[in-house]
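Researcher: Next sequence.
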Amino acid sequence: MKYFEVTFHISAPEGLHEAACDVMIAQAGEAGFESFVETDDGFRAYVQQSLFQPFVLGDLLNQLPFDDMTASYELKEAEDCDWNAQWEEEGFEPIVVDSRCVVHDGRHLNDIELTNYPYAIEIDAHLAFGTGNHETTRMMIASLLDQDMKGLRVLDCGCGTGILGIVALKAGAAEAVGYDIDEWSVSNSQHNAIINDVDDRYASLMGDVQVLQTIKGTFDIVMANINRNILLADMDAFSSKLNEHGSLILSGFYTDDTPLLEKKAATLGLHLVNQRQEGDWACLTFTKIT
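Model: Next structure:
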């Protein structure tokens, strides 16, 4: 997956620098940027090249939250190989979700006993989002495990490493289908399904929301951990693939964005039944009643 790296340099009045960075990070998140790293005078942000729109940077600089604040940026292409090497060398420490699920890389187990958890998921992440390290992934996993998954058919929109579909299958789902715009993610999710011994019930497809037109039938659970703008644009398609009384689980957005998503969902006959929050991030579960 090709990304742009944008380094923002921010100057703000005394005592307001941290707040200025927080506001701009929130605005960048709404514009499609996915991850952020603090720097001495601002932050670095990453956005998929295929989703990047140049005017967004101009808008960010034209909507500075404080008087006497200035901001500039530098844009360059991020190095895929560096990210891959970091994962291969470092991996990640085991991540426990609600005392019910542990996500691990198969190597850094330390003293953790996998059998102490109902579900143990091994993820070999190569350039794909989804290890459980991010708040949104953890909330999605917890929301899935709150449901009786036995015999269900689930759809993962923007599957990344495949972690959500794999969790669903481990919890008793009959079938999981994922799709992603990135070929690395499609390959990685299939690989992770194999090492978790659920590959006979897992399928991963390459494409955006249009790929749903090629998938037969509907699903008991549709889930998407993507940014707000894509969720709003694609929710109609998600709803069209959801069974009556099925569940739509969404994350990847800030709590402040919740009213927008609720409003859109209501137009589709989707009713909010559960809400989670971790930090500034939110996760919503809707049921379809038309």
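Model: The chain has a mean pLDDT of 87. The two ends are 38 Å apart (CA to CA).
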